[in-house]
Amino acid sequence: MNLRTPSVLLAAWVLAATTPLASQQTLILTNGDRISGELLGISNGSWRFRFVGTDQEISVSQIRTATSDSLIGIRLVDGSVLAARLAEDPSGVRLNLDDGSTRLISPAEIVAVGSPADLDALRPVEIGLFSPITRFWSALGSFGLSDKSGNSRARGVNLTLEFARNTERDRLEFTFGWNREDKRGDSGTFENTVSNYYASARGDLFLTTELFAFAATRFKRDVFQDITLGALYNIGAGIQAVSTPATDVRLSLSGGLRAESFVSGGAETDVVAGFEAALRQNFGLADLVWRLDWSGSAGDLTDYRVRSDAALIIGVLKGLGFRFGILNEFNNQPQPGIEKHDLLITTTLSYALGGR
Predict the structure, then answer these.
(1) Is the pTM of this model over 0.90?
(2) Which residue, of 41, 214, 229, 240, has the fewest CB within 10 Å?
(3) What is the CA radius of gyration of the chain?
């Protein structure tokens, strides 16, 4: 990707590449073979075709012509978007349009396919630097309440909000979380035992299809870790190790500042270096999201923090589902009287917006 170009054109290939067309299509190859099945999508000069239950990538150079038994949505190399039936022709592919007109093209002129009922999904979208701001967003909110009775009494509340934007050019992520728990002590009154807030923001800018630069910040308040306010500011670079519809893996290195003020008094500011690994894996009805980051003081390698944040999000019905989260934080040099490990396990109801 060339950053000197002010914008790039991203066709709405997501639908075309992942949604099979309902009708049957037949490909007539240059060697005379004919195969019938489902045209799943077109990408990078190859037609993805499901034939006898198997998905195959067929180079457009191997295709002489094609037919379809019903209308399909088509985007051509010249940018035009239309609905047509494909018909065999000695000179290429004949498009039979609904209005009775025809058009003769070569197979290489078809660059995307989709539903004939949603041609707008096939139109190119102009993507600039973090624009259009209103597209490509997803959101996830989760909320949980707990009330334990019997020999021990406890009650808690958990809230998580996540917003993300993902394109070929950039990626934005915003998160906010709040956790609180109260337990009844020996006196019979409830005492606060867990109380923390955190928020983070991150922006990635892709330099190539694999390499990206980023800036990120995270804020935290946790009185039971003696932190009035902790802030981390990072800039760095990373690699998109795996990027498929089901799997996303990122690795990155960074440098920045860590600033903390303490409930017991005092404050610290350190220059830090960091490493991060992030995974998102889709299992159909469930998504596994895990992020592991290590940050250490540049002046003292024994002063480091490790944060593991994992969640399993299970969809149930129309965006509703469950979120199971495990947040584990390790501080190798905590304040006096504070444990090194801090583990929080949550189970909440969730609602996903934007297809997550």
Answers:
(1) no
(2) 229
(3) 26
